[in-house]
TrEMBL record, chains A, B:
One of its GO terms (molecular function) is metal ion binding. InterPro entries: ADH_Fe/GldA, ADH_Fe_C, ADH_Fe_CS, BDH-like. The lineage of its organism: Bacteria, Pseudomonadati, Pseudomonadota, Betaproteobacteria, Chitinivorax. Belongs to the iron-containing alcohol dehydrogenase family. It comes from Chitinivorax tropicus. Residues 189-360 form the Fe-containing alcohol dehydrogenase-like C-terminal domain. This is NADP-dependent alcohol dehydrogenase. Pfam families: ADH_Fe_C, Fe-ADH. Its cofactor is Fe cation. Keywords: Oxidoreductase. Its EC number is 1.1.-.-. Residues 10-176 form the Alcohol dehydrogenase iron-type/glycerol dehydrogenase GldA domain.
């Protein structure tokens, strides 16, 4: 049965070419703005210039250097700058890491107590935050239109999610042309990340949430259709516009309405990133096909629906259809140039022990829509994800 | 090419069984609340009692009698009550007509000047409104999660839409069990109304808005799957929950992002309702199949996509596929017990002249996604919608 739900997404999406200039209407004229940035790309590709032009005479300072998988340690430096400069508006210019980091800074800058509690409480301790806006440059995580963030504590290899309604961006400017200079690797990662976000909210057990299932299947089909052209040398507006909007819709809360959710692939993947520094999307591509295989009985009905509606698999018995759907999922990632086994990333059996130990240490001992992915089940998933030794040669 | 767009829907959806009690958290405790109602159903089926219980000790008064196709004349009585009683919060309890009417009251109660200007300006004259919330009892129009409304001036047979971001409901409570006492006629109308809302945002010309097309197709498929069970004697939670959420998603702004829109079926249908009092959804069912036929060349590409993805029509040449898709659309309405010709509603050739005259009088002279539906084209659509004389016998 469809579950009760609350859906409330107040972020204003401003989408299309030449929309950065609208920042002038979106941010109060008397705001003291901190622009938060990742690496150098927004500077070298001109996006930062457009942002600064649009902000006009406002007081604007910058915080540079939010890393992929943003760290608590770095973000606390930004918090110090916010306090020092009496900043009252945050503007994230970047992808999911910059946006996630900015959400944490928004909450931590006005938090009473130890800001690490924001993460240990999964965000429940957050009661207010500075207002924030987003200029998105990397379509992938959907962070621009949701209230989730993930922060890593470097010292402890601890990668922790939190969410709070207080950290929704007030607006998100999505200009597809600002993605034209992205490396192919990032576009591939974005496709894979969005794909798995949808799967986590869809591939569980049926609750007759008909519209939500159709939306999920529609977004998966869109990503599959986009994939062959995604790695072309010349960026294409249609391609980028569709990827950008699809990745936002994949995790803006809509697909999650009234349905069970999994997220085990993410939790296991986070440990792989925290321990070995592997790109987030690539960890998902390792874990997901193995998880589908290990959980094929509890996900039986939805796997068959996925096989038929997303991959149009209509022959074979149930087991064969499910095998084929899992194989197609793996091929999708591989077609993007993303390896799907631990060995593809030069990991071996030791990684299984290390990741399982981290899952236990971080309390990730009952994952998935049935909370039945214990550390033993995670071990089976990782073992299956290892890949054949000769493949690594 | 996908068009630039702004998407901003701030309404909080509270969905599921026993959610009316959450009104206590949703409305300020010191609010002076006016509950706006349609006919007697909310009183006789217990919904009003649940609302009053949830509102507790707040000051609550009622305005009864907002009619289907709410009239300016009636709504101005509510405006007078709001002013007389210094109401500061409006709560619509009902379906699309009550919600639309409440939006108008919210804007008119604080409007400087002649409130009819709200409608002649299509809503542009609205600069503020009283806060409002919704308890939905009839899934159909999507008004609960959008900022549109339609108001009729009885004196002039004038049915006019307006929209304004100021009239979004702050929240919409959607409890599927509160629809159980609806007459079958209203459920049928709801399915037809939602279906045409989707079509108006989908069946135009392709702009490669991939996710939006998939969403529209998914919602149309959902309505088609729901239809056979919709008129069953015993209401079913799954059925009603899916209809309720699908009808909201059909017109919450999401499908319209970045795409051209039509709305000619609605504009012509409005004149049929204003002149003859025919149910809104039934006027749409009359106009749409005829409009698809008359506009089949400008809608060629999308009609073929609709045929394939929604109706799974894969044989025949283009013209045959389009014919079949139009026939299936008509059959969908007929399967709900909704007639699709003017003669089904005891109208004859004179109605064509009368409706065309009204379209001209109301300035509806360049309708559709290409603004090419002139009064002459509307006449052809209405002539085709007339139906064979012997069918009426």
């Amino acid at each position: 049965m469809m579950q009760n739900f609350v859906f409330h997404n107040p972020t204003k999406v401003v989408f299309g070419q030449d929309t950065i200039q609208q920042l002038d209407q979106l941010i109060p004229t008397n705001a003291r703005v901190l622009v938060l940035l990742g690496g150098q790309s927004a500077k070298t590709n001109g996006t930062l210039d457009l942002v600064r032009q649009a902000l006009g005479n406002r007081q604007v300072s910058e915080f540079n250097g939010i890393e992929p998988n943003p760290t608590y340690e770095t973000l606390m430096e930004a918090v110090a700058q916010v306090k020092r400069e009496q900043i009252d508006y945050l503007l994230a210019v970047g992808g999911g890491s910059v946006i996630d980091g900015t959400k944490f800074v928004a909450a931590a800058a006005v938090f009473d107590g130890d800001p690490w509690d924001i993460l240990t409480s999964w965000g429940k301790a957050v009661t207010r935050a500075l207002p924030l806006g987003v200029v998105l440059t990397l379509p992938a995580t959907g962070s621009e239109t949701n209230c989730n963030a993930v922060v890593t504590r470097r010292a402890t290899h601890s990668k922790r999610p939190f969410n709070s309604p207080h950290v929704y961006a007030q607006f998100a400017v999505l200009d597809p042309t600002r993605t034209y200079t992205l490396p192919k690797r990032q576009i591939a990662n974005g496709l894979a990340d969005a794909f798995v976000h949808i799967i986590e909210q869809y591939l569980t057990y049926p609750v007759q949430a008909m519209a939500q299932d159709r939306f999920a299947e529609g977004l998966l089909q869109t990503l599959i259709e986009l994939a062959p052209g995604a790695l072309a040398d010349q960026p294409d507006y249609q391609q980028r516009a569709n990827l950008m909007w699809t990745a936002s819709l994949a995790l803006n809360g809509l697909l999650a309405t009234g349905v069970p959710q999994d997220w085990a692939t993410h939790m296991i993947g986070h440990e792989l990133t925290a321990r070995y520094g592997i790109d987030h999307a690539r960890t998902l591509a390792m874990v997901l096909p193995a998880l589908m295989q290990v959980q094929r009985h509890t996900k039986h009905a939805k796997l068959l629906q996925y096989a038929e509606r997303v991959w149009h698999i209509t022959t074979g018995d149930d087991a064969e259809r499910i095998d084929e759907a899992i194989a197609r999922t793996r091929q999708f990632f591989e077609s993007l140039g993303i390896g799907t086994t631990l060995r593809d990333y030069d990991l071996d059996e030791r990684a299984i022990d290390e990741v399982v130990a981290q899952l236990i240490q971080h309390g990730m001992v009952a994952l998935g829509e049935h909370q039945d992915i214990t550390p033993d089940v995670s071990r089976r998933i990782l073992s299956l994800a290892l890949g054949a030794a000769n493949q690594a040669a």
